[in-house]
Design goal:
By secondary structure, the protein is mainly alpha-helical. Helix content is 67%, strand content 4%. Strands 1-4 form a two-stranded antiparallel ribbon. Strands 2-3 form a two-stranded antiparallel ribbon.
Amino acid sequence: MVDPLHQFVISPIVKMSAGGVDLSFTNSSLAVVVAVLGIWILFAWGTSGINSGMVPSRLQAALEICYNMVLDLLDNNTGEGGRRYFPFVFSLFFFILFSNLVGIIPYMFTTTSHIVVTFALAGMVFCVITLLGFMLHGVKFLGVFAPSGAPKFLLPLLIPIEMISYLSRPISLSVRLFANMMAGHTVLKVFAGFAAMLGVWGIFPLFINVLLTGFELAIAIIQSYVFTILTCVYLRDAVHLH
């Protein structure tokens, strides 16, 4: 039976190095390029005829729905002043979404199944939000570690708890996305292996695999949504010190 974890191995496609540093173009790099090109093609195609008629095309309507969905997330969770960060949140949502979806394509690589990728994304969000908080509020941003209305005698206990909670954000964000994508693809590979081993009698695990693929598609979308909505919540703390 094929090792279900073999699909997560990063392998070079074009080997390159410079100064002893491995710069090889890998299957992971290819998946990132495909995801970025897919986003570019989608929006280039969807917006190419935006001024050609009064009635939007189906693709344009779908993109507008996605646009409004992310905008509503930002408005509802970040509040006033949050819209200026819409390009960042919108780009983050679509990059994670397409990275998840590319991994469902047979023989493609799932970049978000690696903790180093998801932690890099979560770390970027953490750094952007922390820097933004200090840029907007200066030293007052440290007030997020002292809940408003809390009795002063409890602050020595609450401040360390809030600091741990704040510093654990990139860990929780990255592990949630990584674990869901890796677990889903592992289960898919296991059932696909069963179907191949059973031959003609593999129709039942094959049918389950089809259902699991649909489930994995839903997980890919939901995890992108969850990552985005948590980013909006964290942005609220930086903007409004809540």
